[in-house]
Design goal:
It is a single chain. The protein is an alpha+beta fold. Helices cover about 35% and strands about 35% of the residues. A hairpin with a 2-residue loop joins strand 1 (about 20-25) and strand 2. The longest helix is centred in the C-terminal third of the chain and has 23 residues, at about 90-110. The protein starts with a helix and ends in a 6-residue tail after the last helix.
């Protein structure tokens, strides 16, 4: 595991324990078994949805993008604000917002489909 991933354990200590799993050349960052962040090239991105994306946009933080077969793809993760790396309380606030977005996303996926 990279030093950056190990450092994130400290960054999110007030939020709670996190784990990291390798994925697609980066890492998924999990809390209570649910992915709420990702790391690509030692850069942290946090989960966003319609309820919390305004916080990221207000700070001018861009969404995670990657190139897939020549097409630019966006994911529902935004660049984490720099300040959370040195401010554990802010890190906990941002992590909690992103974890809640992950919970909402999971709830939508698990919602039973109504057949007509």
């Amino acid at each position: 595991m990279s030093e950056y991933i190990e450092y994130l354990q400290e960054v999110f200590e007030l939020f709670g324990p996190i784990t990291a799993r390798k994925m697609f050349g980066g890492y998924g960052i999990y809390h209570n078994g649910l992915m709420f962040a990702l790391v690509a090239e030692d850069t942290l991105y946090l989960k966003a949805d319609a309820e919390n994306s305004g916080y990221f946009e207000k700070e001018g933080l861009g969404s995670f993008k990657y190139n897939k077969s020549g097409k630019l793809m966006r994911m529902s993760y935004y660049l984490a604000p720099d300040e959370i790396m040195d401010d554990r309380e802010q890190a906990a606030i941002w992590a909690h917002r992103s974890f809640e977005a992950a919970l909402r996303s999971q709830a939508l996926k698990n919602k039973p489909k109504i057949k007509k």
